[in-house]
Amino acid sequence: MPGGGQPNLQQLLKQAQKMQEQLASAQEELAETEVKGSAGGGLVTATVTGSAELRSIEIDPKVVDPDDIETLQDLVVAAVRSATEEARKVQQEKMGPIAGGLGGMAGGLPGLGM
Length: 114
Prior knowledge:
With about 110 residues, the chain is an alpha+beta fold. The chain is built from 2 helices and 3 strands.
């Protein structure tokens, strides 16, 4: 490397800035992306953003039984878990290539604790 083996600091800073811009763009996109998860054969559906913000819960009236609230609660939890897992997949698809491009720099940039 030129300069006695020292990396070009200016070039590293440009790369880090570009990756931070890509990261911010991907985070914006994730916040706007919605994914769904369901349980009970679709009786309960949860919608979350790609950044794992819960947006809505849909419950089919057929599953509402005042004498069995526990089953409904279990279905809601399962639907939210399913939607959250879908959100994680979307996050990995969007953020994985960016974080992978950082190589050894990922530990030194704020907000990339993936």
